[in-house]
Amino acid sequence: MTAGEMGEREARxxxxxxxxxxxxxxxxxxxxxxxxxxxLGLWLWKKDAHPMIDRNGKAVLNFxxxxxxxxxxxxxxxxxxxxxxxxxxxxxxxxxxWELLSSWEGRLTVGTGVPxxxxxxxxxxxxxxxxxxxxxxxxxxxxxxxxxGRPFRYPIAISFFR
Length: 162
What we know:
Elements: H1 8-20, H2 34-46, H3 51-82, H4 98-104, H5 116-147
Helix pairs in contact: 1-3, 1-5, 2-3, 3-5
């Protein structure tokens, strides 16, 4: 089907479906990449049918890939937190007295009296929650905008597809 054959209303419906398609991950949570694979499949299938579908599909994929990248970075940070770097495990000489630092860990505080580790955990948890809420809310707003035929630009999306 070419761009001339698909009506505006049908194109809006497909664009809306593209924005909502990442939520298929809730049907199979064990496959987290569905949030990228389902929109990718829909976009590849319908991108030539109408320019609106192509634009919205690229926007959805850019956002989902950005969230996947940021989420992966947050998982990596949490792994560093849980399993700190131990130079002696890879044959390097230990130059930092970790025992001394860990004995002070509970007493290091920020100006408010909150321990540094607690403060970092609160910041980390806030960033994770903000990213999750953005991942949850932005596609819904995008779907509503697509249904109305208005363009939507996802916040924080890296342009992988132009």
